[in-house]
Amino acid sequence: MKDITDYQDKKILVLGLAKSGVSAARLLQKLGALVTVNDAKPFDENPDAQELLEDGIKVVTGGHPLTLLDEGFELIVKNPGIPYTNPIIKGALSKKIPIISEPELAYQVLSGEMIGITGSNGKTTTTTMIQLMLDEKRPAGHAYLAGNIGIPATTVVQKIQSQDTMVTELSSFMLASVTTLKPHIAVITNIFSNHLDWHGTRENYVRDKMHITKNQTEKDYLVINWDNPEWQHLSKQTKAQVVPFSRQDLTEDGAYQKGEDLYFKGEKIIAASDIKVPGVQNVENALAAIAVAKIEGQSNESIVHVLESFGGVKHRVQYVTTWNDRDFYNDSKATDIEATQVALRSFTKPIVLIAGGLDRGYTFEKLEADFKAHVKAIILVGQTSSLLAETAKNAGVPVIEFAHKVLDAVPLAYKASDAGDVVLLSPANASWDQYKTFEVRGDEFINAVQTLQNGKKA
């Protein structure tokens, strides 16, 4: 980490806590700033604020009082989730107080290299693939994960040295306030229409995504999906060297799929079928990661080893194990219909599906075609069991069974499966009717599969 004096004795407000806010506050304190943190959660229910107060940082909790803006702050470090429509943010803008995000602060003290990854879909998987590839047989230093993947950049940056790389997932919320942040390699996996309630319009959303390349120069690289004319057009906004990737064989200037194989600039890297994580979306993620790894000078051997062994990000079509010729996958992160559609379309083998969860008042007709095409049996849990059962019945799924929880569904799914099948947890629903988080639900699936393997009663 760089030893900078820019923030010595400066009054800085950290707006919003959670992991990133706590980490930013601690870094600023280390840099000599006079830090105040403000969080909407009441103090008695806010262990983060309590710990920061014990460490000598001023805390204001229970709301965002506009009177804070009278205290002469020279900078605000904003939690990414707080929109620019928030009154205190609007007030700060009117007073011309600079506002940055937590990764921006991290970048200002970064002594190594930053690779930044954004996009509507595939960010976390692509970020993880890149980190693993760049850390494989690395001659010096390490590649570290950071950012929206759940690891604050301001925490990671404190251990980064000049030979290291910080592989950083960047959300549109984080990118909205970019001032100096400049990845040496920026990756855009794709851009659709997400978070319009936060950004206001799709135009704003796209603009904020493109901030990832805002400060890049001719010495930097933009790796961008080439399979949509809009994304090709967006690439004209950068000063960086454009390295495209395409699953549709639209370019030979970067990474691309041709037939059943993946290439980089005419050189075959790997067969698509050898990638451990299933689905065309992961072929795209792999192509983006290949492009970054090749720019960074990594060997084909290292790239292939990662793609053949990486089982996926936990809870996102995560490969768990193969047992008795059944492949078990944990996709507990699939908390909506669209995510489950992606998971079902990722496999060519017959699927025994475990689904169901919190009833949010919608029905599941959109899944009928995917059930018909991919699902041989379905085990249902949670509040939406009967609704999903109706859809499965209409799709002609021959086996429809019910279980109390995922723990009970796994042995039923195994019993309904045959050699060569996939047993998939992809709920199409949030977990909150039975589980605190989707992670808890996914962990229960993994544990139940291990219990099954070990021959214990589930």
TrEMBL record:
Q: Which pathway?
A: Cell wall biogenesis; peptidoglycan biosynthesis
Species, as recorded:
Pediococcus parvulus
State the family named in the UniProt similarity comment for this chain. Belongs to the MurCDEF family.
Q: Which residues form the Mur ligase C-terminal domain?
A: 315-428
Question: What does it do?
Answer: Cell wall formation. Catalyzes the addition of glutamate to the nucleotide precursor UDP-N-acetylmuramoyl-L-alanine (UMA).
Q: This chain belongs to which protein, by name?
A: UDP-N-acetylmuramoylalanine--D-glutamate ligase
| UniProt-listed SUPFAM superfamilies | MurCD N-terminal domain, MurD-like peptide ligases, catalytic domain, MurD-like peptide ligases, peptide-binding domain
Under InterPro entries, the record lists: Mur-like_cat_sf, Mur_ligase_C, Mur_ligase_C_dom_sf, Mur_ligase_cen, MurD
